Automatic annotation (TrEMBL):
This is Phosphate transporter. Keywords: Membrane, Phosphate transport, Transmembrane, Transmembrane helix, Transport. Belongs to the inorganic phosphate transporter (PiT) (TC 2.A.20) family. It is found in: Membrane. The keyword Calcium does not apply. The chain crosses the membrane at residues 28-55, 61-79, 86-107, 138-162, 169-187, 199-222, 234-252, 258-280, 301-320, 348-367, 387-404, 410-427, 464-489. It is a multi-pass membrane protein. GO terms for cellular component: membrane. One of its GO terms (molecular function) is phosphate transmembrane transporter activity. GO terms for biological process: phosphate ion transmembrane transport.
Length: 496
């Protein structure tokens, strides 16, 4: 009797074990669908909100559909673009993934809602001339096609694992729809030429500044005999430089809704904040460094907190600027639907800004970790010093580009900074290796074959080529997709 009961319990345990494994497998398989389901719910909620605000007439259904696609675009911006701000800090272990997502979501939303431009060029900085489009209806379909195509392209890039410029995606979408609606002559080609030039200028300038910053840190802190004394001297200077640069950056780019600030005033603000930050940080760094060992691990601790602040400030500025990529075309459609005409610049309604801000936060939370890991750890290995150089180069490059009047992409700058740090480390390591190999008493292990040296690269070439290819084809791919979508929409509506 006891033996039979024991066998029954064993059979029951096996059955329960199978059920448990089945449940775990179901949860594992369904996990990727949770994010997609939440994203779809947000898109539907955005569309329903537009329906409540505008009513349910046939003409307003266009606004409802546009609100849904605007929410979809905002989600994709959060999934792709925000990785550039948070990737270096996460890769350097200054922030956990959860902490990075929380900070980015908070500061992206704050930047979008508090300092997002209330007037935006809905046709992406004059890419096409609205007067060249025959009717308001055609303009609506052109903006709708641009919104859909740019969102699809950024979604595809995120799925592939390539950080691309959402600004350039929107530019390509607007250009393709404009050509399909009004011909090649509708495009402002000199402006397009400037944008094409920024494909090269943005990453090269960002990479050069990041590499120069890392070279300075190595020479003046890392390779000094007394690293702690060198850090006490230079880390407050670097913190002041970073704080001043970000203050000027935010004054130029992030506060235009509150007050108009020119370049000279922004630089003066930056100098003032930089000097104040140096005065505050010098005694704090001296106190924090007391008792630290004279090694690189101690230096990483000193750079951790500045890196967190830089990531937060980058997110605020990104939300203030790039939310327009999601809601600019949507604002144009809303304006045409309300007033029956189109203009180069329109005011963005508050509810449209909210869709953009919350969409970016949802996209970051649901799909952002993939690109954060890519930028932070899969291109090259980052530590707090290297990540600091990337963050500083992003702010400096935007200020220099604004001064020169060049349109640049925050994505290209940040990723270019990561590449710049990685390639500088390769060059520096190769130079040190040649010096050691050239000495008479160099060990045999130093004298590596050329094939082995090529294998020991510090930047993953596969990611490098994938990202460069994605950058190059972003505008033409979005343009072709947008043109095709515009023709399909126009055909369907015309047939209807």
């Amino acid at each position: 009797m006891t033996k039979t009961t024991g066998q029954q319990w064993k059979t029951l345990d096996k059955d329960l074990g199978r059920i448990n494994r089945l449940e775990m497998a179901t949860i594992y398989v369904a996990r990727p669908l949770v994010g997609t389901g939440i994203a779809l719910a947000f898109i539907v909620l955005a569309a329903l909100s537009a329906a409540v605000i505008f009513g349910g007439t046939a003409g307003d259904l266009i606004v409802v559909a546009a609100a849904g696609f605007g929410a979809y675009m905002a989600i994709n911006i959060g999934a792709n673009d925000v990785a550039n701000n948070m990737g270096p800090a996460v890769g350097a272990n200054a922030l956990t993934m959860g902490g990075a997502i929380a900070i980015a979501a908070l500061f992206e939303s704050a930047g979008a809602l508090l300092a997002g431009g209330d007037v935006v060029s809905t046709i992406s900085k004059g890419i096409i001339d609205p007067s060249g489009i025959a009717s308001p209806d055609l303009f609506i379909w052109a903006m709708m096609a641009a919104l859909i195509s740019s969102a699809l392209w950024v979604n595809l890039a995120t799925w592939v694992g390539a950080p691309v410029s959402t600004t350039h995606s929107v530019v390509g979408g607007v250009m393709g729809a404009g050509i399909a609606a009004a011909g090649i002559s509708a495009v402002d080609w000199p402006t397009m030429g400037m944008i094409a030039a920024s494909w090269v200028i943005s990453p090269v300038l960002g990479g050069a500044i990041a590499a120069a910053c890392l070279a300075f840190i190595k020479a003046n802190i890392i390779y000094q005999d007394d690293k702690i004394a060198a850090a006490r001297r230079w880390v407050p200077v670097l913190i002041g430089l970073m704080a001043g640069t970000f203050s000027a950056y935010l004054a130029l780019k992030g506060l235009k809704r509150i007050i108009a600030i020119d370049m000279q005033t922004a630089l003066l603000i930056g100098v003032g904040v930089g000097v104040l930050s140096y005065a505050i940080s010098a005694p704090l760094i001296r106190k924090q460094s007391e008792g630290m060992e004279n090694r690189n691990k101690s230096l990483k601790t000193l750079f951790g907190l500045p890196l967190v602040f830089s990531a937060a400030l980058l997110s605020f500025a990104h939300g203030a600027n790039d939310v327009a990529n999601a809601v600019g075309p949507l604002a144009a459609i809303v304006h045409v639907s309300e007033f029956g005409d189109f203009a180069a610049k329109v005011t963005i309604p508050t509810w449209v800004m909210i869709i953009g801000a919350f969409g970016i936060s949802f996209g970051l939370f649901l799909f952002g970790p993939k690109l954060i890991r890519m930028v932070g750890s899969q291109i090259t290995k980052l530590n707090p010093m290297r990540a600091y150089c990337v963050a500083l180069s992003a702010a400096v490059t935007v200020i220099v580009a604004s001064w020169l009047g060049l349109p640049v992409s925050s994505t290209h700058i940040a990723v270019g900074g990561v590449f710049g740090v990685g390639f500088f480390r390769e060059w520096h390591a190769e130079r040190r290796l040649r010096r050691k190999a050239g000495s008479a008493n160099a060990p045999a292990t130093i004298r590596l074959a050329p094939e082995e040296r090529r294998r020991r690269k510090l930047v993953r070439r596969s990611h490098f080529m994938t990202i460069i290819a994605a950058w190059v084809i972003t505008v033409p791919a979005a343009a072709v997709m947008s043109g095709v979508i515009f023709l399909l929409l126009n055909t369907v509506v015309g047939a209807g």
